[in-house]
Amino acid sequence: MKAVITVLGQDRIGIIASITGILAEENVNILDISQTIMQNIFTMIMLVDLSKMKCDIQHLNERLGKAGAQLGVEVRLQREEIFTSMHRI
Amino acid sequence: MFSRNEIIETINMIRQENLDIRTITMGISLRDCASESVERATGRIYDKICRYAEKLVKTGEDIEREFGIPIINKRIAVTPIALVAESSNTNDYTPFAKALDRAAANVGVNFIGGYSALVHKGYTRGDRLLVESIPEALATTERVCSSVNVATTKAGINMDAVMDMGRIIKECAERTRDMGGFGCAKLVVFANAPEDNPFMAGAFHGIGEPECVINVGVSGPGVVASAVRALGDADFGTLAETVKRTAFKITRVGQLVAQEAAARLNVPFGIVDLSLAPTPAIGDSVARILEEMGLERCGAHGTTAALALLNDAVKKGGVMASSQVGGLSGAFIPVSEDAGMIEAVNAGALCLEKLEAMTCVCSVGLDMIAIPGDTPASTISAIIADEVAIGVVNQKTTAIRIIPAPGKKEGDMVEFGGLFGSAPVMAVNPYSAERFISRGGRIPAPLQSLKN
């Protein structure tokens, strides 16, 4: 199962380190990653593979949410299908 | 991989433009629950609903979390209760309403629809008992919704039922006087009622439906309003095309959620209802879309044309996005649940007659409209008659959900709270229809050719 992780918010040091640290701990593989500043907002988009994940999706969601709150950014984990269904026929 | 813009577009629809799945509604047949004994019938109803819908709420919540799309309501629709209760030896159907209420509370859904009767051509004994019990049923339960189909294109209009419903609506308002007549917000009068509508208060599980089914209603007026705003002064072809594309994207999410929910619950997927359903939240308004198209206020001349374009484009975009489309499918224009509609009424831009015209080209009808509490029952019946006539002649669904707010006058506000919002009390034509309504009988089915 693949998912898209997006991080939106104010840029600061350690955002990628914090998020990818959690992914490594839970055995989530990063397939693609991009980062940019869009309209003054730090935007990071990651495509990840959850197939060998050690925890369930809810637990990962909670961990990422907590890390986001500490960093003052919004972190979302969404299964890839929502983007496929909306943008691909 | 998706482009960055595609991902950000989806996220913004959810974050800023209130894109959500409005409802996952499980339809459950109760036809096998009938019994001569009321206790046995209501026991079977309670058990069956609890068994089938046990995992409905949790499944909805799981999908919401995994896909990051809010799913606002999980609801249940059942076989019209008049059909089930009719076999029981009783003249009091309220125990059926209470069984539905208890079952809904037990499985954690906020509304259950189907305390209903289909009387477009006439009443059976059970239909009459059910209709007469509606005020009591809605006043003594919290989650039960009721609907009565009084007309179809093929059968014409049952004017006896239209007359009765004017009185029943008045009684519902009186019985819930301390809540502004809230009972009426849970009661819909239909022409050509769809059997697979997932939206409350008019949802029921039609008699042609399977044992159990999952229907999904999408939403997203805010997404469409943003897309229209971004167009500036583009011409109508571009406008329609943009609404179509946006509706396609919204509906694809509905289709995904519907299929996922159906698979997880091991229940067939029924339909996606392509409706634009507003809420009182800022930026979640159908009226705002019409205003973005260039009308100073919803209700101004041009509103009907704007709504016709919107409704048609939503359907065209949605139909390609979903394998099965049904329900009401179009734009909803409930007054109390749409911040833009409320403002339009308060500004004097939108009146009952204009709303009636708008219902000729959109999906539902006169929805969540408060009128003065002293409006005569015959006038309410006449409003119903006008609205169902539009549905019957134009071969479409129309519905009336109207609240004669006890003790309130034109210009007052009635607060219902939550998704029901607050309704400005609207003026009603003061001239009487008493003699017309009291004739009784049926208005024949209209001719389907020679259409002009």
Automatic annotation (TrEMBL), chain A:
CDD domains: ACT_1ZPV. It comes from the Bacteria. It holds the Pfam family ACT_6. Transmembrane segments: none annotated. Residues 4-78 form the ACT domain. Belongs to the UPF0237 family. NCBIfam families: PRK00194.1 (NF001220). This is UPF0237 protein SAMN05444373_104017.
Automatic annotation (TrEMBL), chain B:
Pfam families: DUF711 (PF05167). Belongs to the UPF0210 family. HAMAP family: UPF0210. This is UPF0210 protein SAMN05444373_104018. PANTHER family: UPF0210 PROTEIN MJ1665 (PTHR37560:SF1), UPF0210 PROTEIN SPR0218 (PTHR37560). Homodimer.
